[in-house]
């Protein structure tokens, strides 16, 4: 059987998405497993990302596996000038699966080519971070009971935000999604994604600010609007308070709506939303552990 | 025939015509003609009805497979190949943009792994006119005006 990897969200089929959803739910019900007993998993973080690393390492521990690796490249052979090629060759001799994060784009796809064991991309620069997308999908599945017919609002930086692009691609595989994009013109959803939706006959709408239409939302996916993204600081000042979600804005939204955010947040979700039952971002992060357990088990053909 | 006289005729080999003038040396690079020992003659800035000016290359005693020569379509999409035997054109071919391009072109993305480590590039051609090529590694698109030969 050929080796499976998870480098981009499009590497998985719709059937695989559904399998990951099902497995995540099983692991959530029963988080203490021994499927990885006797297995060694490498977590290679060429740049630090404590949040993602802890989530993966918790998943490995919950599956009963052992971990080798490093949490930033200063403490590894990489700082001595070893190539990615050689590091991956070496580690793939030791471990049963490699989870890696690297600042260069395409590094994970390259590692998968070099490695004899499966590779999970935990972020390659600004390119892909597919386990985030699967945990977003699991959060949607869990709170809405379905992935079909979802009215999905994406808010904030839709131009550079890789999480919204991947989620758009993945959710487009399901029936009748409706996308609503809320962003300043500088950070609008790129044409290539809008073209992708049009070609598939999927409905989408663009808005410059929040308005009553959010009352139709099933999911509101918030992202950070970062100052560095603006060429003109005046433009940032103009929009910085437009894309902040406040509790009072949720008054007439659906009782079932949930607010997601890939975290960490800055100020784009007012803290007065946190205690609203519609706020879901902290539970969403917790879901990541079960989704990552599912991804690992799937790639190693353990489930 | 007047155009042919601009560069001396060859007895046997290949004539590559209708090369954009600024693409001449890229074609040389792609076909590795600089490493080739037989007679190679170039003409540049020649008059062309269709292109204004053009370049032409004549390579003695060398014939090309489609796969080999289609690579030059990236920089010379309208190039025409004439196979010459005993001073006669025995075959005319046009180049075709391949579906997949391995090596040759540099990924325009400075943060791509192929620009940091010794990794041969791989692209999928997603549009032919103008050329748009998607990097297999970083998934970014290199556009025709950004094409640089590796
Ligand atoms: Zn690239």
* CATH class category name of the largest domain in chain B: Alpha Beta
Distance between the termini of chain A: 15 Å
The most extensive interface between chains reads: A-B, 16 and 16 residues
| CATH fold-level topology of the largest domain in chain A | Rossmann fold
Q: Determine the fraction of residues in helical runs of chain B and give it as a percent range.
A: 10-25%
Give me the CATH superfamily of the largest domain in chain B. Answer: Aspartate carbamoyltransferase regulatory subunit, N-terminal domain
- Please tell me the CATH architecture of the largest domain in chain A by its name: 3-Layer(aba) Sandwich
Bound molecules: zinc ion
Strand order of the largest sheet of chain B: 2-3-1-4-5
> Overall mean pLDDT score of chain B?
90
Polypeptide structure, described:
The complex is a heterodimer of chains A (303) and B (150). Chain A has two domains: 9-128 and 286-299, 3-Layer(aba) Sandwich (Rossmann fold), CATH 3.40.50; 130-285, 3-Layer(aba) Sandwich (Rossmann fold), CATH 3.40.50.1370. In chain A, the strands form two sheets. Chain A has a five-stranded parallel β-sheet, covered by helices on one side. A four-stranded parallel β-sheet of chain A has the order 2-1-3-4, with helices on both faces. Chain A contains nine helices and nine strands. Chain A has helices spanning 14-29, 50-62, 84-94, 107-114, 130-144, 162-171, 191-199, 233-239, 281-299, and strands at residues 40-45, 66-70, 97-102, 119-124, 151-155, 178-182, 203-207, 219-222, 258-260. Helix content of chain A is 36%, strand content 15%. In chain A, α1 (14-29) crosses α5 and α5 crosses α9. By secondary structure, chain A is of the alpha/beta class. Chain B has 150 residues and is mainly beta. Chain B folds into two domains: 13-94, Aspartate carbamoyltransferase regulatory subunit, N-terminal domain (Alpha-Beta Plaits); 100-149, Aspartate carbamoyltransferase regulatory subunit, C-terminal domain (SH3 type barrels). Helix content of chain B is 10%, strand content 39%. In chain B, the strands form three sheets. Chain B has a five-stranded antiparallel β-sheet, with no helix packed on it. In chain B, a hairpin with a 4-residue loop joins β8 and β9. The N and C termini of chain B lie far apart (36 Å). The mean pLDDT of chain B is 90. Chains A and B meet through α4 of A and loops of B. Bound molecules: zinc ion. Zinc ion is lined by residues 107, 109, 112, 114, 135, 137-138, 140 of chain B.
